[in-house]
Amino acid sequence: MTISVTSSAARATRPVHKWLVRYVVLLAGVAIAIPMVVAVAVGADSYLSIARDDPGRTTSLVATGLRAVADLASLVTVGALASALLTGRLKPLREKGSRRQLEIHEWLEPKILRRAGAIWVAAAGLLVFVDSADSNGYSLSRLADGHAVRFALFSGDAGRAWMISCLAAIVAAATGMISVSWVRYLIALWAAVVGSLAPVVVGQVLVGPRHDFGSDAAICQTVAGQILFGVLVVQLLRLATARRVRVRDRLHWRQSAVLLLGVLFVGELVLAWVKLVGPSPLATSTARLELLRLLGLVLLASGLILTFRDKLVAGAATAATGAAAFVTGGLAMTRIPPPQFFVPTSISQIFFGFDLTGPPSVASLAGQWRPNLLFAVAAVVAVVAYLAAVLRVRRRGERWPILRTVAWVIGWVLVVAVTSSGLGKYSGTDFAVHMAVHMTLSMLVPLPLVLGGPITLALRALPAASKDQQAGPHEWIVAVLHSRALQALCHPLLVFGIYIGSYYSLYLTDAFGTLMKFHWAHQLMNAHFLLFGCLYFGLVIGVDPTPRRLPSLAKLGFLFAAMPFHAFFGVILMSGGTIVGKTFYEYLESPWRPDLAHTQQVAGGIAWAGGEIPLVIVVIVLALQWAIQDGKDARRIDRHLDSGLDDSYEAYNAMLERLARRTGADTGRSGEPS
């Protein structure tokens, strides 16, 4: 494993700005110190006002400081991974056995990744215990009591969130130590983003009316902020050490930066709308911190504009200041209960963020829309990116099947309709509606999506890099398609097991009742069913290249093999045994008092019969695909025969002649006298 370093001659021609490193360290110190000062200033009131025991100043300070260190370290870790993946130099595609791969060809980013990842591991590991003690009102001295530690770890969500964060940090740090594989860095980036999200989704955004909007906005904002701020810090360190600021070499990096900044700004406005409620919300500390964060985004935008005009040093310093203000405000907010904690809240608002006025009906399911921000944003991004790729392909004079475009758009329209209409709104309170949503996401929506061929379109729209060019998005996609990770993920047995087993493991255990209490968990279930539905049907009727292709008859068997499992699952639900999620639904106290046994029977019927329509569609699509492929093969053979390039028929006739001559000779010999 070798990693080349930047040429010393090239670096010697660039100025060194060591003060930028000291400035970044200063900003990090301020981002840690100010939240600790806020924690001291608010004192016990931040706990007592929300009916929590005060753990003491020491516990509060240690928890605040460690949270700041963990958040900053995770930001830099994500930035190092994203910079190495998206802006770093990569070795060209090379053969390794039957696989083609990319390797990171940088020195600074892996070094930053190892150090930031190690700090993140240590801080998150300590927060598993310290933040659990802080949220449960325990002093640090009580961590010596094993019973108290077990109660603190498993009585709330803070400890489990930091466990996930710590595991993600270990994956990222280990990747930086042992690998330069581009695909492994991509996996580590995914893990790091998940680890960054874990403490966020169980925090303040999970409380109060409209928290469904707040949680989705926080998820989008966290992902955008970690990537934009992290890449900014890493590129600033490259500038400070006289290395090339490689982000400027990438096409569309300005558009990407503006897009991420827009996500941050809109997300902050949504969060402010969710948090600043009740009497005189603008007079609260939360409002002042929101203003600080918005001013930070203004500074960040100003810094980016300066960098766009090639004023790198001034722009980088200004953008770093804005990012620090934004992050500092967010860290300080974690120590102050926001106004939405203190407004009257119904049980439905506690779990879902909104109230439901009546039972589900055709009118309410079709007419009561509430946007699911996360899936609506995903749908808009997916459709716009797809249409842009189609436009690029057609501008080059190439054709792209209109039916594939229609299928892709229909798929995402169905996603929005299922998650944002009354179906999505009532899926939390009514098990039958919930089952209809998840069956649609896992069995109906994937069909048009996999027929849209987004990977094939991307490979055709994105230009391939020449031998002397830096590997780009086209090569990234090819590397992922040839990776062992994707080969393992697309293994038919694994896909089949997860696709079918998810229903049994989720609904026939206590997991369902637990997950339904949280908005982020409901979104995770939706994403899980959609993803593995696409993987399952992608192996059967997908038009994109996959690491593992099934033969034609195997596709049909793969499809029909799932039928008895769906039917048996539906029978279990309809048998009237244990009520799925009974405690959760009883605690909701819905005004219309639903009959849980009857609702579960309806859900079982949906699970049993819901697969019939997709099955018919898939069989028809398979038949059409086979017919189209046979027609293509026949036309190809005809062209070869007409051009004289195909001599298969002549070879076959010659073989028959040889057999005939051999048979005649054998007959003649058998007729001779012995």
Please describe what this structure looks like.
- The protein has helices at 8-12, 18-42, 45-48, 57-86, 108-136, 146-154, 158-178, 182-201, 211-240, 253-275, 285-308, 312-333, 347-352, 362-367, 373-395, 402-420, 422-426, 431-444, 446-451, 454-461, 473-481, 484-489, 492-507, 511-515, 519-541, 552-560, 563-574, 582-588, 596-609, 612-643, 648-671; strands at 90-96, 99-104.
- The protein has 674 residues and is mainly α.
- Residues 1-10 have low confidence and may be disordered.
- Helix 2 runs parallel beside helix 12 and helix 15 packs antiparallel against helix 16.
- The termini are far apart.
- It is built from 31 helices and two strands.
- The chain is globular, with a radius of gyration of 29 Å.
- Helix content is 72%, strand content 2%.
- A two-stranded antiparallel sheet has the order 1-2.
- A hairpin with a 2-residue loop joins strand 1 and strand 2 (99-104).
Shape: globular
* Number of helices in the DSSP assignment: 31
Q: Please give the number of β-strands.
A: 2
Q: How far from one another are the termini? A: 75 Å
Give the proportion of residues in helices. Answer: over 70%
- Overall pLDDT confidence: 86
Widest sheet, order of strands: 1-2
User: Which spans of ≥5 residues are poorly predicted at pLDDT below 50?
Assistant: 1-10
- Beta-strand share of residues: under 5%
Specify Rg, calculated over alpha carbons. Answer: 29 Å
> How is the biggest beta sheet arranged?
2 strands, antiparallel
Question: How does the helix and strand content classify structurally?
Answer: mainly alpha
